[in-house]
Amino acid sequence: MTFLQFSQSNLLRGTTLLVLRRHGLYVSQRRRNGVAWLESEIPYEELLPVTLEYAVPGPLALPRPLLWVLMWLGVQFGIHAMQHGAGLAEWVAVLAFGAGLSLVYLGRRYLGRSVTLSTNRLRLTLRDQPGRRDALVNFTDELRRRAHGYLRDEYAQVNPLGPIELQLHRLNWLHHLNVLSEKELRTLSTRLTGRLSLDSIKLMGQDLETPYLN
Question: Which of 175, 170, 200 lies closest to 185 in space, CA to CA?
Answer without folding.
Answer: 175
